[in-house]
Hints:
Elements: H1 7-24, H2 28-43, H3 48-53, H4 65-77, H5 81-87, H6 92-97, H7 105-115, H8 120-128, H9 140-155, E1 162-163, H10 164-179, E2 184-190, H11 191-194, E3 199-200, E4 203-209, H12 212-220, E5 225-231, E6 235-240, E7 245-250, H13 256-264, H14 267-278, E8 282-285, E9 288-291, E10 297-298, H15 303-309, H16 325-330, E11 345-346, H17 361-370, E12 375-378, H18 389-403, E13 408-416, H19 427-430, E14 435-439, H20 450-455, E15 463-464, H21 482-492, E16 495-499, H22 509-518, E17 522-525, H23 537-546, H24 560-566
Parallel strand pairs: 4-7, 11-12, 12-13, 13-14, 14-15, 15-16, 16-17
Antiparallel strand pairs: 1-3, 2-4, 5-6, 6-7, 8-9, 9-10
Amino acid sequence: MAPLPGNAEVADHFDLLADLLELEGAESFRVLAYRRAATRMRETSASVAQLALAGRAKELQGIGKTIEEKIVQIVETGDIEALAKRRALVPPDVIAFMHLPGLGPKTAARIWRELDITTLAGLKEAAETERLRTLTGLGPKSEEKILKALAFQAENPDEGRKLLGDGLPAVQAAVAELREHPAAVAVSEAGSVRRRKETFRDLDIIATATEPAELTAYFTQLPWVVEVAAHGDTKATVVSRQGLRFDLRVVPPESFGNLLQHFTGSKDHNVAMREAAVKRGLSISEYGVTTVETGDVFATEDEDALYEFLGYQPIPPELRENHGELDAARRGELPTLVELSDVRGDLHTHTSWSADGKNTLEEMVAAAAARGYDYYAITDHSHYLREGRLAAQLEEIEQARERFPKLRILAGVEANIRSNGEVDVPEDELARLDWVVASVHQAPHTRPTERVLEAMDNPYVDCIGHLTGRRIGKRGPREVDVGSVIEKALETGVVLEINGQPDRLDLRDVYARAAKEAGLKLVVNSDAHQIRAQGYVELGIGQARRGWLTKDDLLNTQPWSRFQKLRRKR
Length: 570
């Protein structure tokens, strides 16, 4: 019997069906239903296909009888009947049109039907030859945006890479399961995820065991495994229901530290370390360090001991990119990096007051209190707090303060920075708030630097959110002069955030490090729109560590009394 499709594969069918329905101009509620169902499938740990065959997929929120029947169609025929019909009528690249910035389904459909453009190459040519502007509603700026987006895609091919936010919790859970097996001695994540890189291809795990074959066999039989791509006594590769690929390598205990270092460090870091070792008469392999003159081999279970043997301060995984860490470690000058446990509060979060928020204000606050935070800011989108809604939310925040007296709840807002540099909330309303995040959302490429600098002159703006506006794998960063923004932040007292959303992680690590070196304090925020997303702070902390940040470099690692002294004075 053929293996059941994984949850990610099933969800992909429904996302594509939603795309094609949008191109058709179908009712928005149908499109939204399929998108929500796809999201639910990806978040479900059990096999959605198996549940559907048992008639139990309807137990999942957002999945009814019709969607369950379509899941069964995927299992039995490999496709959804309605999707197959639509796919045959729409050129594949037309679906890609609607995912380009500034091109929604209606515009994509018009480009296809009215201009007879069916490929990305044709779209590029039409933009270059100014043909797109012949359609009502499209002009020179639209053509410029499309060309930039196409260039970004060409320079950043997906190559099967996935977001850190998808892989980190999955590999952490797998490591925890492996550690429970009686044969396991030491188990660790490795690879780019251990360095907290923004994207990854595979999830690497390194382990030692008393019985390696037992551990690899156990790994292939874990309930979330849908495919075993390879299996031996010391190695195994499996694929999860979410479509994630895991590589487990069980290594000799005496070389665990050497191998863990080898499979964690970036290629550039490892090459630089080997070249430095050669100059000292040493030869490094993944199994040990050989003294060339004597043939003696240094192997170790302890990764830190390997660095110390080579004359380095132990180097945290996030710094292993050959960005100066080896020289600093040789001098013993590596910083003590910030830890997730150092975070005292989250200063950019949303509730159901924002249309895209999924949990109520009370639910979000209760979850923040359970995390042990000292303070927590509610910063819903400003355009959802008009016509008296801000005043109503302030009343609800006051009630929440009574229910959660140990948590300091900050009344805030995420205000939009208009193209003229103004924020879209009147100053008398800003004055009522404890914390104001200002972000660019609309017309992002219009005066990208100037409008941010002008917004920072507003005396009530405390923080600039997701400064460059990038969406990893989808669109590149805006052409913001980050150096000028850092200078302005130092002048005004406004802080910049590292946004922990998996597809943002904005500021990126190099800018975070530049801010640190300039003496600017940052904040790490989740930008959570639901309870689960409060955990995105961990991703932001990973980015902060990659930027060499310490506890003292962040504002929201400080106790409230110090936070108040360090924040912008109004």
